[in-house]
């Protein structure tokens, strides 16, 4: 199917309600030029983290006059991500922005997209470098890992047992974050000991059940550290129901709105993240600039609408540093 017919098919699916992906309509660009079609791939489309990214992405698409397609697996599923990318290649989208569940697994499909003339960037979690042009990096892996370990150690007095809840054992970005958690632990906090690593499949209920098991198996556990957004409220609910509020600390990467009540109740001590709407917004601006030839190898900065200018380090577009949300500031944020 040629590119023109494929895009007609995409439009027909959207109009008839038969398509499974979600599409944001934008005003036609001035001068009657062709709209860019930007396809945004989350790890899982029901995850509140990526729903927040989508909000920023939709705002950027409206400002740019681009069509935004948002689609992904219901739960983290590398094979399903590959299937969606293959479908977008057939449909002839202009650019794909992907948050990659499995770095190696999705790179073949992304390379195929590039070979067909589709521009490719990644955000949140990277592919192999030759499978995309740029990575929109929410924070460096070192910065995230160090921030998690520093906060955990601070709350535990620099000693004690901790367990990690991860989204999945194969998520490349979370593997990197844990690597730097361990590097920081070995360097600065040798009396901290990780006793367990448990996946929750990006499900709050599973994070809760895994934490309940950990609390029983490790009576000396001092803190739960989650590297996935749904791990933090899931662990908090388990700690609360076990009557161990204050006895077992709880921190991790997460969204303020999902964790406010646990923070105010003293169950969760702090949440570490970045502004997820800004991540989605910047990803779409970067995708648009790449597709239009306005973003090139060697560039040092990129302008992204109302957010202003961002630094580019090599092929990484840097959103910024991790931010710690706690009882003192969490009510200032609404995402």
Highlighted features:
335 residues; alpha/beta; Rossmann fold; 2 domains; 9-stranded mixed beta sheet; 10 helices; elongated; disordered N terminus
Question: Summary?
Answer:
The chain has ten helices and 15 strands. With 335 residues, it is an alpha/beta fold.
What does this structure look like?
This protein has 335 residues and is an alpha/beta fold. It has 2 domains: 3-138 and 275-320, Response regulator (Rossmann fold, 3-Layer(aba) Sandwich), CATH 3.40.50; 141-273, Response regulator (Rossmann fold). The chain is built from 10 helices and 15 strands. The chain has helices at 3-16, 48-64, 78-91, 103-115, 141-156, 172-188, 204-217, 231-241, 256-264, 276-291, and strands spanning 22-24, 37-41, 67-70, 95-98, 119-123, 134-137, 160-166, 192-199, 221-226, 249-253, 270-273, 301-304, 308-313, 316-318, 323-325. A 9-stranded mixed beta sheet has the order 1-3-2-4-5-6-14-13-12, sandwiched between helices. A hairpin with a 3-residue loop joins strand 12 and strand 13 (308-313). The longest helix has 17 residues, at 48-64.
């Amino acid at each position: 199917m040629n590119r023109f017919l494929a895009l007609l098919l995409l439009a027909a699916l959207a109009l008839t309600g038969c398509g499974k992906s979600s599409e944001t309509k934008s005003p036609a660009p001035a001068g009657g030029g062709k709209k860019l079609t930007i396809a945004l791939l989350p790890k899982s489309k029901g995850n509140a983290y990526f729903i927040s990214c989508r909000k920023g992405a939709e705002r950027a698409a409206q400002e740019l006059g681009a069509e935004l397609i948002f689609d992904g697996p219901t739960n983290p599923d590398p094979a399903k991500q590959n299937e969606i990318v293959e479908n977008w290649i057939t449909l002839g989208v202009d650019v794909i922005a992907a948050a990659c569940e499995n770095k190696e697994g999705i790179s073949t499909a992304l390379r195929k997209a590039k070979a067909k003339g589709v521009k490719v960037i990644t955000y949140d979690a990277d592919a192999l470098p030759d499978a995309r042009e740029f990575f929109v990096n929410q924070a460096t892996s070192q910065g995230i890992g160090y921030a998690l370990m520093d906060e955990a150690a601070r709350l535990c007095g620099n000693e004690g047992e901790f367990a990690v809840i991860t989204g999945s054992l194969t998520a490349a970005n979370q593997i990197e974050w844990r690597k730097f958690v361990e590097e920081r632990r070995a360097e600065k906090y040798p009396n901290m000991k990780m006793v367990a690593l448990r996946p929750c499949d990006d499900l709050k209920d599973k994070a809760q059940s895994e934490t309940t098991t950990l609390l029983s198996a490790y009576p000396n556990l001092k803190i739960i550290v989650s590297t996935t957004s749904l791990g933090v409220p899931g662990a908090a609910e388990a700690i609360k129901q076990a009557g161990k509020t204050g006895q077992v600390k709880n921190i991790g990467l997460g969204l303020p709105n999902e964790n406010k009540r646990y923070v105010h109740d003293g169950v969760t001590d702090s949440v570490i993240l970045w502004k997820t709407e800004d991540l989605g917004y910047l990803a779409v601006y970067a995708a648009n600039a790449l597709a239009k030839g306005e973003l090139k190898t060697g560039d040092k900065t990129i302008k992204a609408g109302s957010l202003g200018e961002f630094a580019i380090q090599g092929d990484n577009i840097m959103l910024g540093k991790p931010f710690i949300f706690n009882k003192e500031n969490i009510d200032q944020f609404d995402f």
